[in-house]
């Protein structure tokens, strides 16, 4: 048999070689059957029938080897840095444990109590392990209370040991300076802290109550003493003596409520009350004299309509409200006899009259509703001023001064449509009414029916609002100006002679831009009428007189014709000649 040439080499990395003489590489069977069930079995030989190496290590050595850190592979382990040191006065700053406790003291010189239970709060300060005992102050106790033991470290025994928070728990007794305190409960923070430190807390107990304190809480016994009041003496003394009060009942908070005035009579002879209404002329109410008949008034009622207390004279004070049978009356004045009675009987000398008159509410500012878009804004506003609307007032002086004064302008339509570029329009501005009319002269074979384009109306500027409209004025019309009329934009091209004269005579009304357009027109030395006249030519016969205002015919024969020409000029159908 050939021996293994690598036998005896150490089993280290780089020195392990396969055995060339080995020919069997099968593995031993580890499964078998017993009583018809598949079971596993431990192999007795290794791969190829080799002998299995027996582990000679003990179980302790195996455990130690399993727990040994792999220092050779990963090196020496790094030690974690030590935690930062935090002193107790920083870690436990403002952290206090609170315990509820009580102690019992003997009362030897009292016939009503033999011992006394005093409830205290024990505070333990974690920052320096000091303690304090504070007794809550009880009203009218007659005992000095408050801080019983100042904050300090308290001795636990004679050996010099001090109390620690581990010594405190619920349901235990602790002795401090000869007094035994019974701890019954603690707050939530104390409970969470002690449980977090592994201390098992006892169940809480009920706080013991002081018997004498509980006795004082019981209601006092009431003793009813028979009255020695003589009603006959009251009748003889106060006969025909009546207190008179003036009061109001303000019921304005309810629907259809109002503030009404009353007179309250208090009869001193039998303590009865009477309430009378104060009627005014034409107040619209039935003349009932009494609101409530003379009777005694209950002040405090209980079940079954039992009266515990009645109204007396001391309940009627000027300046205070008074509720009688569900109605609250406010007394604002009384008569001189009543003032003298209160001064002598009750010592009340100051009963001034109180002014209960309500000031008039401020006038409501009337505001116009939003403009609805129908007609002029001034016409629509008249519906808010009167039930039957009236026409808005006109400026008569302006109409008389500017009567028959018309400013005429030649304009073109600014439109992207090719057919609208050659259209011309005549703007007529009426100075008397500030209205504008637009006329389009008819052009033969143009395919557009000329005539009245816009009737007389006021045109609003596009920058104004419907509630506060701003209308076009004479200052807005000049050569080169853009006029927007209900969504259509027009460019002023020319004016007539009267417009030029009007602008020169009223230069203060126009802007420098408008005046510069006049100056440029004059420099060109072109009369303003020819272009406008060419557009508006309708007849061959010239007018006898051509002006910017009106043309008059002196002959009776042409009177009707002059009237037609005047109406035509108002619409823009006038003739201009050089």
TrEMBL record:
Q: Where is the DM10 domain?
A: 93-198, 239-346, 403-507
List localization entries: Cytoplasm, Cytoskeleton, Flagellum axoneme
Q: What is this protein called?
A: EF-hand domain-containing protein 1
Could you tell me where the Basic residues compositional bias lies?
556-566
Query: According to its UniProt record, where is this protein mainly located?
Result: cytoplasm
Alphabetic keyword roster: Cell projection, Cilium, Cytoplasm, Cytoskeleton, Flagellum, Repeat
In its UniProt record, which GO terms are filed under biological process? cilium-dependent cell motility; mitotic cytokinesis; mitotic spindle organization
In residue numbers, the region (Disordered) covers 522-578
According to the UniProt entry, which residue ranges have a biased composition of type Basic and acidic residues? 567-578
Pfam families per record: DM10_dom
Query: What is the organism of origin for this protein?
Result: Tupaia chinensis (Chinese tree shrew)
Q: Name one GO molecular function term.
A: alpha-tubulin binding
A GO cellular component entry from the record: mitotic spindle
């Amino acid at each position: 048999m050939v021996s293994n040439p690598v036998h005896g080499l150490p089993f280290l990395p780089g020195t392990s070689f396969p055995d060339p003489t080995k020919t069997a590489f099968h593995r031993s069977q580890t499964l078998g059957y017993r009583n018809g069930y598949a079971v596993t079995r431990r192999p007795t030989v290794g791969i190829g029938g080799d002998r299995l190496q027996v582990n000679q290590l003990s179980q302790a050595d195996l455990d130690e080897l399993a727990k040994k850190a792999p220092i050779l592979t990963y090196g020496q382990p790094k030690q974690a840095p030590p935690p930062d040191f935090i002193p107790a006065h920083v870690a436990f700053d403002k952290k206090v444990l609170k315990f509820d406790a009580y102690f019992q003291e003997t009362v030897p010189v009292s016939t009503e109590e033999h011992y006394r239970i005093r409830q205290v709060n024990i505070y333990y300060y974690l920052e320096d392990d000091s303690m304090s005992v504070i007794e809550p102050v009880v009203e009218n106790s007659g005992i000095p209370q408050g801080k019983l033991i100042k904050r300090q470290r308290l001795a636990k025994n004679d050996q010099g040991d001090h109390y620690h928070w581990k010594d405190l728990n619920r349901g235990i007794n602790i002795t401090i300076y000869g007094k035994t305190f019974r701890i019954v409960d603690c707050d939530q923070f104390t409970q969470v802290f002690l449980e977090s430190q592994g201390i098992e807390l006892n169940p809480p107990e009920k706080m013991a109550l002081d018997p004498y304190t509980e006795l004082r809480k019981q209601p006092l016994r009431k003793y009813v003493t028979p009255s020695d009041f003589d009603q006959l003496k009251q009748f003889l003394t106060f006969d025909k003596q009546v207190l008179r009060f003036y009061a109001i009942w303000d019921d304005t908070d309810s629907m259809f409520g109002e503030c009404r005035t009353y007179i309250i009579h208090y009869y001193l002879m039998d303590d009865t009350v009477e309430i009378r209404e104060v009627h005014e002329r034409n107040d619209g109410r039935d003349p009932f004299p009494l609101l409530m008949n003379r009777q005694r008034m209950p002040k405090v009622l209980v079940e079954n309509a039992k009266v515990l207390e009645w109204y007396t004279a001391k309940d009627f004070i000027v300046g205070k409200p008074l509720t009688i049978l569900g109605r609250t009356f406010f007394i604002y004045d009384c008569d001189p006899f009543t003032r003298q009675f209160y001064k002598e009987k009750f010592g009340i000398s100051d009963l001034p009259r109180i002014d209960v008159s309500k000031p008039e509410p401020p006038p409501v500012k009337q505001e116009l509703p939003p403009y609805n878009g129908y007609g002029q804004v001034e016409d629509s506003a008249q519906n808010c001023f009167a039930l039957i609307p009236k026409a808005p007032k006109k400026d008569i002086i302006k109409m008389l001064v500017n009567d028959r004064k018309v400013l005429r302008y030649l304009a073109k339509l600014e439109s992207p449509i090719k057919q609208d570029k050659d259209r011309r329009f005549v703007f007529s501005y009426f100075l008397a009414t500030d209205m504008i009319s637009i006329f389009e002269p008819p052009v033969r074979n143009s395919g557009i029916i000329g005539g009245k384009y816009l009737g007389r109306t006021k045109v609003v500027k596009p920058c104004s609002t419907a509630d506060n409209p701003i209308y076009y004025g004479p200052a807005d019309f000049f050569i080169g100006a853009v006029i927007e009329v209900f969504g259509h934009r027009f460019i002023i091209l020319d004016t007539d002679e009267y417009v030029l004269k009007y602008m020169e005579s009223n230069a203060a009304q126009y802007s420098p831009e408008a005046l510069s357009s006049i100056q440029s027109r004059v420099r060109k030395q072109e009369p303003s009428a020819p272009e406008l006249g060419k557009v508006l030519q309708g007849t061959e016969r010239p007018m006898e007189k051509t002006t910017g205002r009106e043309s008059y015919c002196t002959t009776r024969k042409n009177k009707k014709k002059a009237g037609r020409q005047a109406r035509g000029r108002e619409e823009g159908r006038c003739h201009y000649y050089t």
